[in-house]
Structure formats: C-alpha cells, structure tokens
C-alpha cells in the first residue's frame, strides 16, 4: 500500500469505519484479482465481478441495480467520507432548527395576507381615502401630542394592510405604532392581532433580535453547505433521482426517495433561499456597497419648526424621480427629526415595473421645511452588485411576481420542510437499524429512540402549536351576545394585542410591549413544550396520528372561526383584496394533506401489524 493511501485511511472520520473497512476489502480483492493467471484478469472474465468490488468499496446497496466501475473512480472516492460527514452532521446537528425556520418561512411568504386575515373585525373592503395623508397626520398628532413621529405609511404600503400607520416614540422612549382607517377615521392602537409578525419574528430571528438574525444567517450558510455536499454525493445519480416514486415504498426507503426527490427537483430554489436568507441574517455585519440615505435630525429648539405639508413633500419627490423613474409610487415617509430646524424627511416607495427591488429601496431625501430634494436613491441604477443586493428580499420571500410567485414559494417551502423532515426520519431509521432493532417486532407501546421522539416533539409539536395559536387568534375575536368567549381575550396563549415587529424597509424598530410580548412568548413556548412532551411520552405509533388529527382539525376550523368573527363567509372573503379567501383555501388544503398523511400512516400501521 502506498504512503498516501495509508495516510488517507487513518485520517478518515470515526463515522466512516464501514467505508474504511470496505476500502481495505477492495484493495485486498483487487490485488488477488490482478495476479497473473487469475481468471478475472483474462479478457474473457466477467465484468460483474469487478462491479461487485466497486459496490463493496463505495458501500452502495445492490438492491437498486449495479453500477459500473467507471461511475466510482478512486480519485473521487477519497472525497466521499468527507462529503458524507458534512452532509450528515449538517442535518443531524441543525436539522430541527432549519425545519423551524423553513416552516415559519413558508407561512411568512403570506405575512401581509395573514395580517389582514388575523384582524377580521378591523380590515374591511378597501374604500376611497376620505382623509388624505395630511389630515391623517393631523389626527395622529392631535391624539398623541407629546410623542416624536418617526414614520407615516399610506394605505398602499404593503405593511399597512390598507390603513394609515403611524410610528412614534413616547417620552419614555418606547416605540409604538397606531393605525387609522382611511374610510371611517377609526383610530386603533395597537392592531387587535399581529399574529403574522409573531411568526415573522420566529422565522427571521428566533425571537432573539439581532443575535437571532445572525444565528439564522449562519444556519442559511450551513444549509447551503449541506445541499452542496448532497449534490456532490448524488451527482452521478441525479438523472435517476428525478424519477423516483416514493409512494410505492414504505419506511426508510420511502423517506429516502422523498429526500432525493425534493432535493433534486428543488435544488436551485433550496440554494436560493438558503443564500438569500444567509445574507438577510448577516446583513447587519456587512455594510452593503453604494450610497446610503442622508439623515439629518436637525437642531431642536424651543420654537417648533414648521414642516412642509405631506402633499407638498410627495409632489417634490415625484418630480425628482420624474426623469429617471416616472412610475415611482410613494408608500411611506420617514421623519429623521420631526419639528427640528434643518432636519430631513425620506419619501420612500416602490417601482411597479421593477419587481425585483426591495420595497421602499427607491427614495428621495428632502429638506423638511422647504421640500427641496437633497438626495435621490435608485437601486436599479447603482451597478449590478447593489442591484443584486436590493433583490435579496424579493427573491427570499417571493413577492416579486404577485400571488403566483407567492404560491410557488409556498409549495417550495413545503418541499424544504419535506427535505428536512425526510432527512431526519432517515437518520432516526438508520439509528434504529444500527441498534439491531430493525428486524425485531415493534410493540404497540414502543416510544421509539431519542431521535424519533425529538422529531415528533419538535417538528410535530411546532406544527400543532402554530395551528392552535392561529385558531385561538380567530376565536378570541368572536363576539357573541352571551360573550362566552370573552375570556379568550385575556387567555395567556391568545395572540391578541401583539404589537408590530421591526419595519423591514425603514428599519424603524416598532417593538412590541416587552412585558406583554414576553408573556405571549412564554405562553407559546410553554404550550409547545407541553404538546411536544405529551407527544414524546406517547408511543410512536400513537404520537404521529394524534398530531396529524389535531393539526387537520385545527386547520379545517380556521376559516369557520374567521368567518364567524367577520359576520359570515361572504363578508369575510370580500374584505381587503380577498386575502381571507386565500387563507381559507390554504388552510383547507393543508388540512387535507394532514388527513391524507394520517390515512396513509394508519394503512401502513395495519400492514405492519399483519406482517408481524
């Protein structure tokens, strides 16, 4: 044996003992086969014997057919243990966290429709604006006279859910947001429910603020690393993996086929989501190139500086963009130092013809008193690097193509969840097989190994907790004559009164009330732990059916609860731009998938019990 081969064998990871033994067996058999006079060394020998040697060296099961010696050369074989080690432990160590991020990210694609759906008594059919931005600002200033305004968003802003929204800071320093209905003039502070922001905060930062964003960004890089290592391992079998039929098999074989199928067909989208998510999470650590908005807070004095009207500021901003971007549509205005002499305001908006630009990245900075433009920022004209960075958020959340791109991203998100779920299921089945329990009859009271219990507790528990959380959100807003559901408004798990999350465009930190949010967060985590603990304590044959049954019933009941709160299905589905109808269809679709999965699981359990 050559020195380099000897060093290669002793530097393999401990987890590759089987592959190391197969490689030694390969060297031994090839040495015997290549001896002079050996039958297999003659031209008339069969190539099947050498194929058997290659199958032994690579650890491939011969159940799916033989491969030729050409498909696994020794030059590429020495990288297989390292690639396998990376792929396995990226999923084993971070698979549960990645599943949480992918599941909540799938829901966050419909963040704005979820916000409309979660407030059935507030959001009505969009009507004509009877107030205008100046009168809306006057109402806000009259209602909150001792506060410092930071943002005024118009009803066309995607984050305002057809209302005027007003972000301000109280004298204590607390950041708050209020809302104004442009048709009725009703003032709300805060929204009755911000369930969508609660889910978004879990997806973007694991409820840990900036530190959580860094963690999520790092997990995005690890997911991309796992995907690339899996691509390298299956590179020569990609064509075969495209046409697998997982429904024809059961157990570990089925999960393996699902893992390869979703990983092959959706590989590009998985990589796109992982890399864009990594950038969005680590963006605060890396200063993006290009011009940054000018911000001047001005000088505060006893006399209040007179600011130009909102209508005048909007007209000046549109005139500044007339030559380069005539389709510029202002969506919100940010105040850098409201009432201070020499301060600036930032009119931000969207470009309807440029969908791959982050909301609000096109802006005009003006003098607050004279409305004279000081800076114009257009990300589409700042070079290809800044153009790509401005497209990160649309590419990650899929809002660049309207409802169709969001639907596509929704199904891609389901595929990402299936990829992680199947990988963790394969890991659990492989661990059980290595323990020698693969061929033993499984008793009905078997609770599975630690990995199986972790899968049902973390992944199954999260899905059921989110469904129950959304159902309680809808039930808590139903007002009956007897008011028998009024207690839900004060129930610890009720997601009512959650204040808005950071505005992702203006970076105005409108954080929720910390006392209330910590109470809501504690209730959510406690419920998740309680449901997960109960599922983990049950036999594994009972835990998954119970979770799927509860998930299916909760999702099926969501549209009925929302319709009851809005005054009927017709009233519910006509409000807004039809967001509630889309959420109802999605809920019933997911409920149907859960019911089909439950039916499949029950049939397989019957077949397995008969075989035993």
Describe the 3D structure.
The protein has 612 residues and is α+β, with helices and mostly antiparallel strands. Helix content is 54%, strand content 7%. The chain is built from 21 helices and 8 strands. It has an 8-stranded antiparallel β-sheet, with helices on one face. Helix 2 packs antiparallel against helix 3, helix 5 runs parallel beside helix 17 and helix 19 runs antiparallel to helix 21. The radius of gyration is 29 Å and the shape is globular. The two termini are 48 Å apart. About 14% of the residues have low confidence.
Question: Which labels suit this protein?
Answer:
612 residues, alpha+beta, 8 strands
How is the secondary structure organized here?
Blueprint: H1 3-10, H2 17-33, H3 47-58, H4 74-77, H5 80-108, H6 111-117, H7 132-143, E1 148-153, E2 164-169, E3 175-180, E4 187-188, H8 195-205, H9 209-233, H10 238-241, H11 251-265, H12 267-282, H13 310-320, E5 329-335, E6 344-350, E7 362-367, E8 373-377, H14 384-390, H15 392-397, H16 402-434, H17 450-475, H18 514-537, H19 540-566, H20 569-574, H21 579-611
Antiparallel strand pairs: 1-2, 1-5, 2-3, 3-4, 5-6, 6-7, 7-8
Helix pairs in contact: 2-3, 5-8, 5-9, 5-16, 5-17, 6-8, 6-21, 8-9, 9-12, 11-16, 16-17, 17-18, 17-19, 18-19, 19-21
């Amino acid at each position: 044996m050559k020195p380099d081969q000897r060093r290669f064998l002793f530097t393999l990871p401990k987890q590759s003992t089987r592959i190391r033994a197969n490689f030694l067996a390969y060297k031994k058999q090839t040495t015997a086969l290549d001896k002079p006079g050996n039958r297999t060394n003659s031209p008339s020998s069969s190539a099947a014997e050498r194929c058997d040697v290659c199958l032994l060296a690579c650890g491939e099961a011969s159940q799916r057919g033989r491969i030729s010696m050409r498909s696994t050369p020794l030059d590429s074989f020495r990288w297989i243990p390292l690639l396998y080690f990376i792929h396995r432990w990226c999923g084993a160590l971070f698979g549960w966290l990645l599943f949480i991020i992918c599941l909540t990210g799938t829901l966050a694609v419909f963040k704005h429709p979820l916000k409309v759906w979660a407030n059935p008594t507030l959001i009505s059919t969009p009507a004509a604006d009877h107030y205008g931005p100046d009168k809306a600002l006057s109402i806000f200033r009259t209602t909150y006279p001792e506060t410092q305004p930071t943002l005024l968003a118009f009803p066309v802003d995607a984050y305002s859910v057809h209302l005027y929204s007003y972000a301000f800071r109280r004298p204590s320093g607390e950041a708050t947001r209020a809302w104004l209905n442009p048709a009725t003039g009703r003032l709300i502070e805060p929204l009755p429910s911000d369930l969508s922001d609660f889910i978004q905060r879990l997806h973007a930062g694991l409820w840990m603020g900036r530190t959580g964003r860094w963690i999520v960004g790092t997990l995005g890089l690890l997911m991309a690393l796992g995907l690339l290592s899996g691509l390298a391992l299956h590179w020569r079998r990609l064509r075969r993996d495209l046409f697998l039929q997982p429904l024809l098999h059961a157990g570990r074989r089925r999960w393996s086929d699902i893992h390869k199928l979703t990983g092959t067909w959706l590989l590009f989208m998985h990589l796109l989501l992982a890399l864009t998510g990594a950038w969005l999470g680590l963006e605060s650590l890396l200063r993006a190139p290009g011009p940054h908005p000018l911000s001047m807070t001005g000088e505060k004095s006893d006399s209040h500086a007179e600011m130009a009207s909102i209508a005048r500021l909007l007209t000046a901003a549109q005139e500044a963009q007339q030559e380069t971007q005539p389709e510029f549509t202002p969506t919100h205005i940010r105040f850098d130092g409201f009432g201070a002499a020499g301060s600036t305001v930032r009119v931000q908006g969207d470009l309807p013809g440029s969908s791959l630009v982050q909301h609000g990245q096109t802006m005009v900075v003006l003098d607050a008193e004279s409305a004279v433009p000081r800076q114009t920022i257009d990300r589409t004209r700042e070079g290809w690097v800044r153009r790509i960075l401005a497209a990160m958020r649309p590419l990650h959340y899929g809002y660049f193509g309207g409802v169709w791109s969001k639907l596509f991203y929704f199904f891609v998100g389901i595929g990402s969840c299936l990829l992680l779920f199947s990988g963790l299921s394969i890991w659990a089945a492989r661990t059980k097989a290595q323990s020698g329990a693969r061929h033993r009859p499984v008793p009905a009271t078997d609770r599975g190994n630690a990995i199986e219990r972790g899968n049902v507790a973390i992944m199954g528990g999260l899905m059921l907790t989110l469904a129950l959380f959304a159902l309680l959100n809808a039930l808590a807003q139903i007002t009956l004559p007897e008011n028998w559901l009024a207690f839900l408004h004060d129930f610890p798990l009720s997601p009512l009164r959650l204040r808005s999350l950071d505005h992702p465009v203006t970076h105005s930190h409108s954080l929720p009330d910390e006392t209330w949010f910590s109470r809501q967060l504690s209730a959510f985590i406690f419920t998740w732990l309680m449901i997960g603990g109960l599922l983990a304590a049950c036999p594994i044959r009972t835990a998954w059916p119970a979770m799927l049954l509860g998930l299916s019933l909760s999702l099926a009941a969501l549209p009925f609860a929302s319709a009851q709160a809005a005054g009927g299905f017709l009233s519910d589905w006509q409000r807004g731009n039809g967001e509630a109808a889309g959420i109802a269809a999605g809920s019933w679709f997911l409920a149907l998938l859960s019911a089909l999965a439950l039916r499949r699981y029950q049939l397989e359990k019957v077949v397995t019990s008969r075989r035993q």
